Amino acid sequence: MTTILKLGGSVVTDKDRRETVDDAALANAADAIAEADTEGLVVVHGGGSFGHPNAADRNVSATEGTTDAADVRAIHRAMGELLTTVTDELGAAGVPAVPVRPLSAGYRTVAGDVELSTETIAMMLEEGFVPILHGDVFATAGRGATIVSGDELVVALAAELDAERIGVCSTVPGVLDDEGDVVPTIERYAEAETVLGGSGSTDVTGGMAAKVESLLDATAPAYVFGLEDIGPFLSGAEAGTRIGPSP
Ligand code: IP8
Asked: What single DSSP character describes residue 104?
């Protein structure tokens, strides 16, 4: 069984302090993953205070491209530093984590779709490794390079690897309604539109609304939950908000 777990950039970094890892949150996430059965697990982490400020400085987003290779290098470098920290921390906790860099494994088409080659990742899984990917900068037909969010990669990975479940670990315990309560399920975007706001910090890929919209297109049910629910999610429980039809 293949499971895709996204660690939100705002969970593993201090989103308000540039290029700063949230050591305690990352250690908690690493411990929860290490305690679970990691066979068939792929982890993707977001950009947080590494990717988003570097992309925003250069006016690069999921739709705005750059043709300047120095921009591509700068954004990719920042994400590489975060990837190294996340992979090392997971490894130290006992997870057989190995890094995978999306810039070298995919691209965005002229229609805006994400193409990701997953043969290498499938072989890593077969050999018992846990591949770790991240939101990145992606060569994009006719636009130079744009940002690919971790959420887009999660959807592409789920389709290509025929995953059964997607988990998205966020700073909140799920998608919240106006009263601050977790919305248990979202099956259509219209149901959630009124409760979805933007992101509080610099987020070039659109915050919770964009997350829900892209997860609704996924080939597997997706769950949005907080740090405390990584363990329950990985053990097969329902956690936070389920996005998409029931499994
Ligand atoms: O935080 C964005 O990934 P996300 C990655 O999953 C960059 O949206 C480079 C900003």
From this structure: G
225 Cβ contact list (under 8 Å, min separation 6): 167, 168, 169, 170, 173, 174, 233, 239, 240, 241
Residues in the chain: 247
Task: Find the CATH number of the domain harbouring 219.
Answer: 3.40.1160.10
Task: Quick: pLDDT tens for 124-134.
Answer: 999 999 999 99
User: What ipTM was reported for this prediction?
Assistant: 0.98
* pLDDT (tens digit per residue) in 219-244: 999 999 999 999 999 999 999 999 98
Both tokens of residue 11?
A: 């969970």
Domains identified in the chain, total number: 1
Tell me, in angstroms, the distance from the centre of ligand 1 to residue 56's CA: 11
Helix (H, G, I), strand (E, B) or coil at 7: strand
Task: Give the span between the Cα atoms of 175 and 157, in whole angstroms.
Answer: 22
- Which structural domain range is residue 57 located in? 3-243
135 close to ligand 1 (CB < 6 Angstrom): yes
Atom of ligand 1 nearest to the CA of 205: 8
Question: What single DSSP character describes residue 176?
Answer: B
**Residue 8 assigned ligand-binding role:** yes
